[in-house]
């Protein structure tokens, strides 16, 4: 029965996207249907064909090595700093421990430097062209939004935008939303490694599912975003990318230097936005707690509580077994209100226990993405640093991207649940 409940979930997710669409008459149903087809094919290949699953595991591991290489640079800079190693002991940062400001931002800097080198040699331009042709054949989407969505399955949400930096200034609003949505729906390969290293055997077992979630989210984000904000403008990269972007660097050393400097600016914007948004969320929780106690001293009202209740219907509609619906809804609320790190940690350490295999599959895919309030600020700050002239558009599209990224993750989770 849970398998068939998933079809209700698909209808609910697509229905919400349709209701909030800004131009229902212009929805391109070819894009929608072809994107759904791609999601289903990816899920079937990964879940039903062993050698395909193993292949994607190797890819995910390779992309995760970027975080390891970035750590080498961060260790040199922050060596000697004492951090929690995760087992209750304090040790040198070089010997282990995860510090967001050091690990994640170091990865951003490394990726920016690598992308600058790739652009200098013309590699990225050719990748854009290849993916544009492939995605145009299947979904009739532009090269820029196709590249950023596919890249988001392996690198971080800001790094994915760096890959299409020369095109950000001229992208249509629909393309911009699709790109932002894909980055919020997917998870970076480096972050996937962090999840696996959180010290839980459950995290190890979930690795193939998380890779699948990020891959399925790429076409899923395009499906949802093109329903919410259909394309009505002319894209410069639809069908074929014009290779007119030339390197502004004098040599490879210059590319690395400028790329690293740009990455540092993006990293600082990310840190500032995260501090601001998480602090505001904490402020709201404090106010809600006070309001709840005025009504009933035993009512510990919070954003986390409110959203866990709101997401109860989603958890049920996605096909989660009845015994797990309440806890899955709680994790969905935690992921949206705080971040995916908190939700995933509570899942793997069983602070919020999920007892069925199907419930574990659905919730792990549903929370595998950057779609939360603080990430909206991260995107506005990170992409805004790349193209300051588009900051107003980014701010207007931020909440729409959050909705699209969330629904895309839920769509992937629902399809996976049906196939299980």
TrEMBL record:
Keywords in alphabetical order: Cell membrane, Membrane, Transmembrane, Transmembrane helix
One matching Pfam family is Nucleos_tra2_C
- Main localization category: membrane
Q: Please name the InterPro entries in this protein's record.
A: C_nuclsd_transpt, CNT_C_dom, CNT_N_dom, Gate_dom
Task: Show where the Concentrative nucleoside transporter C-terminal domain sits.
Answer: 210-417
Give the location in the cell.
Answer: Cell membrane
Source domain of life: Bacteria
**What would be an example GO MF term here?**
nucleoside transmembrane transporter activity
User: Which residues does the UniProt record annotate as the domain Nucleoside transporter/FeoB GTPase Gate?
Assistant: 102-200
Residue ranges of every copy of the Concentrative nucleoside transporter N-terminal domain listed in the record: 8-81
Q: Provide the membrane topology annotation.
A: Multi-pass membrane protein
Might you report a single GO cellular component term?
A: plasma membrane
Q: Which family does it belong to?
A: Belongs to the concentrative nucleoside transporter (CNT) (TC 2.A.41) family.
Write the protein's name. NupC/NupG family nucleoside CNT transporter
Q: What organism, scientifically named, is this protein from?
A: Solitalea longa
């Amino acid at each position: 029965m849970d398998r068939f409940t998933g079809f209700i979930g698909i209808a609910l997710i697509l229905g919400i996207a349709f209701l909030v669409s800004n131009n229902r008459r212009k929805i391109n149903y070819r894009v929608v249907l072809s994107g759904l087809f791609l999601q289903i094919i990816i899920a079937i290949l990964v879940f039903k064909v062993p050698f395909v699953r193993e292949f994607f595991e190797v890819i995910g591991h390779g992309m995760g090595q970027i975080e390891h290489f970035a750590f080498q640079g961060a260790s040199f800079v922050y060596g000697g700093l004492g951090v929690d190693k995760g087992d209750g002991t304090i040790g040198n940062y070089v010997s282990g421990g995860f510090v967001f400001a050091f690990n994640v931002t170091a990865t951003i800097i490394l990726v920016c430097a690598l992308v600058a080198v790739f652009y200098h040699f013309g590699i990225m331009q050719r990748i854009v062209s290849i993916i544009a042709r492939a995605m145009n054949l299947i979904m009739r989407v532009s090269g820029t939004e196709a590249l950023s969505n596919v890249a988001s399955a392996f690198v971080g949400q800001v790094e994915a935008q760096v890959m299409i930096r020369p095109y950000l200034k001229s992208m249509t609003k629909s393309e911009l939303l699709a790109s932002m949505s894909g980055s919020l729906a997917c998870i970076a390969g480096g972050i996937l490694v962090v999840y696996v290293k959180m010290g839980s055997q459950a995290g190890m077992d979930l690795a193939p599912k998380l890779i699948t979630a990020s891959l399925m989210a790429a076409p899923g984000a395009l499906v949802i975003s093109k329903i919410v904000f259909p394309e009505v403008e002319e894209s410069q990269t639809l069908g074929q990318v014009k290779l007119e972007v030339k390197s502004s660097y004098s040599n490879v050393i210059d590319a690395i230097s400028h790329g690293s400097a740009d990455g540092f600016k993006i990293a600082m914007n990310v840190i500032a936005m995260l501090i601001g948004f998480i602090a505001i969320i904490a402020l709201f929780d404090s106010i809600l707690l006070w309001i709840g106690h005025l009504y009933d001293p035993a009512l510990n009202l919070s954003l986390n509580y409110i959203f866990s209740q709101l997401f109860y219907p989603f958890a049920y509609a996605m096909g989660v077994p009845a015994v797990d619906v309440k806890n899955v809804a709680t994790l969905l609320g935690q992921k949206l209100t705080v971040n995916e790190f908190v939700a995933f940690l509570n899942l793997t350490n069983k602070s919020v226990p999920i007892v069925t295999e199907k419930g574990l599959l659905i919730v792990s895919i549903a929370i595998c993405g950057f779609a939360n309030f603080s990430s909206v600020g991260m995107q506005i700050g990170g992409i805004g640093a790349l193209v300051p002239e588009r900051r107003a558009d980014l701010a207007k599209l931020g909440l729409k991207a959050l909705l699209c990224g969330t629904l895309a993750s839920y769509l992937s989770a629902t399809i996976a649940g049906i196939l299980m």
